[in-house]
Write a structure and sequence with these properties.
By secondary structure, this protein is of the alpha/beta class. Helices cover about 35% and strands about 20% of the residues. The protein has a single domain, classed as Spore Coat Polysaccharide Biosynthesis Protein SpsA, Chain A (Alpha-Beta Complex). The strands form 4 sheets. The protein has a 5-stranded mixed beta sheet with strand order 3-2-1-4-9, sandwiched between helices. A 4-stranded mixed beta sheet has the order 5-11-7-8. Strands 6-10-14-15 form a 4-stranded mixed beta sheet.
């Protein structure tokens, strides 16, 4: 079915609760998914054993020690037993709507993502409670906030797609890599599918104090600047506004006409200048 892979932070303080909540939710998906945890930060090996996940300790990193997503993708291609890969951040809780929604997509090539729901989750979720998902959905209704079109924390792709996309050495957890991925898929005419309406991805709010360059709701600093440079600048970045398709209960449908026309022309010079300005503005949404 699906191989899930992620690169956790150290399992300590609030990150311990958040990441256990996320991984615990993934183990409840049906049909059962394979889960791979990358890295050698504190507690990753023990949590992988506890949840029955495959643990890969060695992964390429930047000069400052931040894992490279390209390395995780390459290693996942080697080790995954399923033909569909799902990368997501280790603070994202998934619901039972993931797999039924994915099964509505019949294309051979695709890149599926969606906006996340931001919500405070302070306590460890008891997954023995058969009503845990309904309780969390109620919390989203009352307190959750749907992030803007830049809030892409998960990506579903076929196992062989990275061979075509060829990601540069972009640092995980730093802005830019997800926007570059959307742009590159569009450039290569790989269908980009916005699944916000069907797939519930819950982002557990947290600060960015784990990084000395944590500012507000993101990590800046030298690796942020390097990510933007490796991506080719803001002109080579897109968001879910630029998706080719929207996933609905009845399958795929085209986005509204005007946004679709704009995103199509934004692939070509001189419209890339306008796209660059647009991307800069979207950073502040």
């Amino acid at each position: 079915m699906i191989t899930i892979f992620t690169i956790p932070k150290a399992f300590k303080n609030k990150a311990n609760i958040i990441q256990r909540n996320a991984i615990g939710s993934w183990t409840k998906l049906f049909p059962k998914c394979e889960i791979i945890l990358f890295g050698n930060d504190e507690g990753v090996d023990k949590v992988a054993q506890e949840f029955g996940c495959l643990h890969v300790s060695e992964i390429e990193k930047t000069e400052l020690g931040t894992p490279l997503l390209s390395s995780a993708i390459s290693l996942t291609q080697e080790k995954a037993k399923y033909d569909t890969l799902l990368y997501l951040n280790t603070d994202i809780i998934l619901m039972s709507d993931l797999i039924p929604s994915f099964q509505k997509v019949k294309e051979q090539e695709f890149l599926i993502s969606g906006q996340r729901w931001d919500v405070d989750v302070e306590e460890k979720i008891d997954f023995r409670d058969i009503d845990w998902e309904n309780k969390l959905r109620e919390k989203i209704k009352e307190w959750g906030k749907l992030h803007g079109p830049t809030g892409m924390d998960y990506f579903l792709i076929p196992k062989n797609l990275p061979d075509k996309i060829k990601m540069p050495g972009l640092a995980v957890g730093r802005p830019g890599w997800d926007n570059w991925l959307i742009y590159q898929a569009r450039f290569l005419k790989i269908p980009v599918i916005n699944a916000t309406g069907l797939i519930t991805a819950i982002h557990q709010n947290h600060d960015y104090s784990h990084s000395p360059w944590g500012r507000g709701k993101k990590v800046v600093g030298p690796e942020y600047k390097k990510n933007i440079k490796l991506a080719g600048g803001f002109a080579n970045m897109m968001t879910l506004v630029d998706a080719d398709w929207i996933l609905t209960e009845k399958g795929l449908k085209k986005p509204d006409f005007i946004p679709r026309v704009f995103s199509t022309f934004s692939l070509f010079y001189p419209w890339r200048l306008l796209l660059s300005i647009k991307r800069r503005l979207q950073q502040f949404l």
